[in-house]
Amino acid sequence: MDWQTQIQNELERAEQARARGNEGQARVCARRAAGIAIREYFTRQAQIIRTQSAYDLLNLLAEDPHLRADIKQSAVYLTLRVDEGFKLPANVDLISEARKLCERLSKEKK
């Protein structure tokens, strides 16, 4: 299965989890979709990837000085921690942020 299909599958799983009221699973799937896109982006940049963790990849991406601020902001949103009520601050929609990040990274050049 190619990386684009993997991303689409994860985003669909995220939407399904949200529809079932399982926002935690939706968050995990959104992060996994972003992780797939980040791995592909770093591969195109000829960067060595030393982690399989989507969370770690999001942090690496957020620190990349060559990327636009909007891409880095999506990565930051996707690493936010939930509060005691299992809610994200600022009503961030992680599925939407993952979609934006995946689309924008697919267009980034070397």
Please tell me about this protein's structure.
The chain has 110 residues and is mostly helical. The protein has one domain (3-107): Nucleotidyltransferases  domain 2 (Four Helix Bundle (Hemerythrin (Met), subunit A), Up-down Bundle). The chain is 65% helix and 0% strand. It is built from 5 helices and no strands. Helix 1 packs antiparallel against helix 2 (23-44) and helix 1 (3-19) packs antiparallel against helix 5. The longest helix is centred in the first third of the chain and has 22 residues, at 23-44. The model has no long low-confidence stretch (mean pLDDT 90).
What's the CATH class label?
Mainly Alpha
Largest sheet properties? none
Number of helices: 5
Question: Strand share of the residues?
Answer: under 5%
Total number of β-strand segments? 0
What is the name of the CATH architecture?
Up-down Bundle
Determine the mean pLDDT: 90
Order of helices and strands: HHHHH
Unreliable stretches:
none
Number of domains: 1
Using only C-alpha atoms, the radius of gyration works out to: 13 Å
- Report how far the terminal alpha carbons are from each other: 24 Å
Query: Which structural class best describes the helix and strand composition?
Result: mainly alpha
Write down the overall geometry: globular
The CATH superfamily bears the name: Nucleotidyltransferases  domain 2
| Named CATH topology | Four Helix Bundle (Hemerythrin (Met), subunit A)
